[in-house]
């Protein structure tokens, strides 16, 4: 008599294949979600990089201006307590509380050597700067310096996002 062989099934059952396919679909959907989020993060990083370059360009030009340049007047003293936009007023729609904006770059026939507005206006970028006279540390009634906040904003969602850089100009008449 021939020995009895046990019958072991080969392959996978329909239930096992269905579960494996469901797990693969869940993994693929998760990977697509991560890829989509990655694209959004890359675009956000690109916008922030552009804003930083525009702000650095304006800061570099401000550092070339004379201390008494009309573009460095404190045109709106009410914003001195919030020079760098800690209240996020620049993220709201509408005109922000800025001392100066794009039109002031060439006011009074001043020469603007930086990035022209035409190169970034289509993307919705706007640049502003606030100026505040620093306290008189040595008590001689002459302001010691000007604190300047450069703010670049761009549209996002229903409002704006913004990037702020700071610089200081020491008063040469008060330098000791």
UniProtKB/TrEMBL annotation:
Pfam families: N_methyl
Membrane spanning stretches: 12-35
Recorded superkingdom: Bacteria
Keywords, alphabetical: Membrane, Transmembrane, Transmembrane helix
Protein's name according to its UniProt entry: Prepilin-type N-terminal cleavage/methylation domain-containing protein
